[in-house]
Design goal:
Blueprint lengths: L4 E6 L2 E6 L16 E5 L4 E5 L4 E5 L5 E4 L8 E5 L6 E2 L12 E4 L3 E8 L2 E8 L7 E10 L4 E10 L3 E2 L19 E5 L3 E6 L2 H13 L8 H5 L5 E7 L5 E5 L6 E10 L4 E10 L8 H15 L2 E3 L6 H14 L2 E2 L6 E2 L4 H6 L3 E2 L2 H6 L8 H12 L11 E2 L5 E2 L8 H16 L8 E2 L10 E2 H16 L7 E2 L9 H5 L3 H7 L1 E2 H20 L3 H19 L10 E3 L3 E3 L5 E2 L2 H7 L5 H13 L12 E2 L14 H4 L4 H11 L4 H10 L2 H7 L43 H13 L3 E2 L5 E2 L5 E3 L3 E3 L5 E5 L3 E5 L2 E5 L2 E4 L1
Parallel strand pairs: 36-40
Antiparallel strand pairs: 1-2, 2-9, 3-4, 4-5, 5-6, 6-14, 7-8, 7-13, 9-10, 10-11, 11-12, 12-20, 13-19, 15-16, 16-17, 17-20, 18-19, 21-37, 22-23, 24-25, 25-26, 27-28, 29-30, 30-31, 31-32, 33-34, 35-36, 37-38, 38-39, 39-42, 40-41
Helix pairs in contact: 4-20, 7-8, 8-9, 8-12, 12-13, 12-14, 14-17, 17-18, 17-20, 18-20
Length: 773
């Protein structure tokens, strides 16, 4: 349905063939240059529709190893005597139509033909933690013998995202800020960006004069050793290795070839961080990676839905491709991505990696646990999670101090334990972020300290609800609510966080029972009961109030529905059955009306500009947020199953492609929110002001990928219970390495420890090992 291309299969995996020609774009909705990122657990490949790519790394901090913006790199060129040079770079595409370009689950392919030669170039992120990409080039002579030279070319364009940079796509970076050392050997060319450490020294002064929560200058100096990039030939052919001396060195490996009629040659290269690894058999690595990615991606089937199998697998590929080994803190992170990471250079907010990892408890639990440990290490020894990590992985508390972030740590911990039975993980040592200089302790102790911080320091605000602080989930609620900021920060009450805590705490109590924390379990249940009663009192006859300001001022009252609190009120049990039905009816007739991408965050949609755009945009203008609509679909399942399924389907990429076929964001990936029909740019995302906004990098926000997967599992009745069990119902199919659920409710779980499952066939106990029902 997309005007930009179509879905297909490559190596048994979902992929998207991009057919639009960037040289002939006339529709003002269609960008001439579109991109998407995939990865392994160490590096991300940014593939662009014009044939170029970039590499992004978050191991030591947010940085482009070679930037894809404003132009990419990683090209093949064919050079023949008395013929014009051609290749995969757009300026050298052969005459005629655009080359075939395929965005894969962990790869990017471009194939071009010119006068009897077929050239196919595939760039792969090998599965695992390889900090480089593998390149396979296939060339076929189909019209007689040919003698020519193949040129493998990469331009070194590293960029660290600095606070004063412009947004992606605007040339705020100048390559001459780096000095390069180039080392050429027989088969490889290595480039050392020697002034990366100079930038670190520049930043040290900022650190010494800034918050004590930042890294010390001594520890910071060691975080970012100079970049060493390598382009290496792996195919055994006699080649010429060279690099020019420009500010952006072009690395080349030139291979002289002769092909007979219908003969195909295969060339192999790698490009990325120089980890000094030796690749004995690139073809075997390639084949193993393709088998691995296909086998680890979950499979799904839902009767009557033609796209679920493809969509779930694709979401899982992009989600896990956003993971990166954290070489400063340890473990892995799942940065929210999009403009926040690639534009601002931040890993924000702390809640986001935690919620992105939730569905991984059912497909790649080792990664879910690694993300839980990594993010818990952000918290200081008092249990306060910083709002974000900056581009250098320094903790930043000063931007905002939300009141909800600890809840996501409790949620992920509980979900992981219920899904795996791995209670031993909570006794394992976990170091704190190096800036704190604190002694490591167990994961359980980290969670206990976060619990105490949430109860004692976040505390309560107006009407006994969880205190608002600078924000709850909604980062701009204070700006968009029209109340006095200082009073709201100090004494405002968030009904949203009360409702969420009233669901999270009983589930967390189930985990506490299993890890020998009876006092914390009892307190969590008592607090949840009290908060549930307070949320009940927020029912205004039509829906639940959003928040309370000091003096009794109601935020989100009878005339103004704020969506984010409503599904949590159903899930925590604050809404009685009739209220739940009335609430879904009000949402269906209001926020969901004539909105193909799901319910709007606010209703009615405001008229004027807000903190994140205009009418129908961002949280204040009534934008559409997958992270909220997931909870809506989940909550609706027990009240109206048809409503739940419909809301989940509105979250899918297939739905966006159907209604907005000319818009790239929403085709393979998307932003944190879509603009509502009332926006002047529906189906796109908020532009922001000042330093830019989501539209500057409107793809690879992991909410778009994690929330539909978790939502699908919730439609199958997969969720943790208040007793620490795992509930499983069925109604659709899910198959991963860890969990199998069949439509009839039968299934299997590869448990890491003792598990208890509530199934349609009764309570099932088992583990560790395979548990079936």
């Amino acid at each position: 349905m997309s005007t930009l291309g179509h879905w297909e299969g490559e190596e048994g995996l979902p992929s998207f063939c991009y057919t639009a020609d960037p040289r002939h774009v006339s529709d003002n909705e269609v960008s001439a240059r579109n991109w998407n990122l995939v990865g392994n657990r160490r590096i991300q490949l940014c593939a662009v529709s014009d044939g170029g790519v970039g590499l992004y790394d978050e191991g030591f901090g947010n940085r482009w190893l070679t930037d894809a913006h404003p132009r990419g790199t990683g090209f093949s060129f064919i050079v023949e005597d008395n013929r014009e040079t051609w290749g995969t770079e757009q300026s050298h595409w052969p005459s005629g139509g655009a080359p075939r370009r395929v965005f894969g689950a962990n790869s990017f392919l471009i194939a071009a033909q010119d006068d009897g030669l077929d050239l196919e170039r595939l760039i792969l992120c090998p599965m695992g933690e390889y900090p480089w990409v593998l390149v396979r080039v296939r060339i076929t002579a189909n019209q007689g013998p040919r003698t020519f030279e193949h040129v493998e070319e990469w331009t070194v364009r590293p960029r660290r995202i600095r606070p004063d940079d412009s947004v992606i796509g605007i040339e705020g970076f100048h390559a001459r800020t780096f000095d390069f050392d180039v080392v050429i050997s027989d088969r490889a060319v290595r480039v050392h960006a020697t002034r990366m450490t100079a930038i670190a020294r520049d930043a040290k002064q900022d650190i010494e004069n800034d918050s004590p929560n930042l890294l010390s200058s001594d520890s910071f100096e060691s975080l970012d050793a100079r970049i060493s990039l390598v382009l290496e030939g792996l195919d055994g052919n006699a080649s010429t290795v060279q690099a020019d001396g420009s500010d952006e060195p072009r690395l080349q490996i030139r291979t002289r070839l002769r092909l007979e009629t219908d003969e195909t040659c295969e060339l192999w290269f790698r490009f990325g961080l120089d980890d000094s690894g030796k690749i004995d058999d690139p073809r075997a690595l390639f084949e193993d990676s393709m088998v691995d990615v296909e086998s680890r991606l979950p499979r799904a089937h839902l009767e009557g839905s033609l796209f679920v199998e493809r969509e779930i697998a694709w979401h899982a590929a992009v989600l896990t491709g956003g993971a990166c080994r954290d070489l400063v803190i340890g473990g892995h992170t799942l940065n929210q991505g999009s403009w926040y990471s690639f534009g601002l250079g931040a890993n924000a907010a702390a809640r986001d990696p935690l919620q992105h990892a939730l569905p991984l408890a059912y497909s790649e639990p080792d990664l879910a646990l690694s993300v839980l440990r990594n993010t818990c290490a952000w918290a200081n020894p008092e249990g306060d999670l910083p709002f974000c990590l900056d581009r250098d992985k320094r903790t930043r508390f000063e931007f905002r101090q939300p009141s909800d972030q600890n809840l996501y740590a409790f949620w992920l911990a509980s979900e992981y334990a219920a899904a795996t039975g791995d209670v031993e993980a909570f006794g394992q040592e976990l170091a704190y972020h190096p800036s704190y200089g604190a002694t490591s302790t167990s994961l359980a102790t980290h969670l206990r300290r976060q619990f105490r911080f949430f109860v004692d320091n976040v505390g309560r605000g107006e009407r006994g609800h969880v205190r608002m602080r600078h924000a709850d989930w909604n980062d701009v609620i204070l700006e968009d609510s029209g109340v006095d900021l200082a009073n709201m920060i100090e004494r405002g009450g968030s009904v949203l966080n009360s409702a969420m805590a009233a669901w999270v705490f009983p589930v967390f109590a189930g985990l506490c029972d299993r890890i020998d924390e009876p006092a914390m379990a009892l307190e969590a249940r008592e607090i949840a009961s009290d908060l549930r009663d307070r949320v009940r009192g927020a029912w205004n006859g039509s829906w639940f109030d959003r928040a309370y300001a000091p003096g009794g001022v109601v935020v989100g009252g009878v005339d103004d529905l704020w969506l984010e609190v409503q599904p949590w009120a159903i899930l925590c049990g604050a809404a009685d059955p009739q209220q739940a039905r009335d609430l879904l009816k009000a949402i269906d007739e209001g926020p969901r009306s004539a909105s193909p991408l799901g319910a709007r965050l606010r209703w009615p949609v405001g008229d004027g500009p807000n903190a994140s755009g205009g009418r129908g945009e961002g949280p204040g203008g009534g934008g559409i947020y997958p992270s909220v609509n997931l909870v809506l679909a989940w909550a609706a399942k027990s009240v109206d199953a048809d409503f739940a399924l419909d809301e989940w389907q509105r979250m899918t990429l297939s739905q966006h492609e159907q209604y907005f076929p000319n818009v790239w964001e929403g085709t393979l990936s998307g932003p944190d929110s879509y603009n509502a029909p009332e926006s002047s740019r529906p189906g796109r995302t908020w532009p922001g002001t000042g330093t830019g906004g989501m539209q500057d990098f409107p793809v690879n926000n992991l909410h778009v990928h994690s929330q539909p997967i978790l939502g699908y599992l919730r439609l199958l009745g997969v969720h943790p219970t208040n007793e620490g069990h795992l509930n499983v119902e069925g109604g659709g199919e899910w198959v991963s390495r860890t969990l199998t659920v069949k439509s009839d409710g039968h299934g299997a779980l590869h448990a890491l420890g003792p598990v208890i499952l509530d199934t349609p066939f009764g309570e099932i106990r088992g583990g560790p090992g395979l548990v079936t029902w």
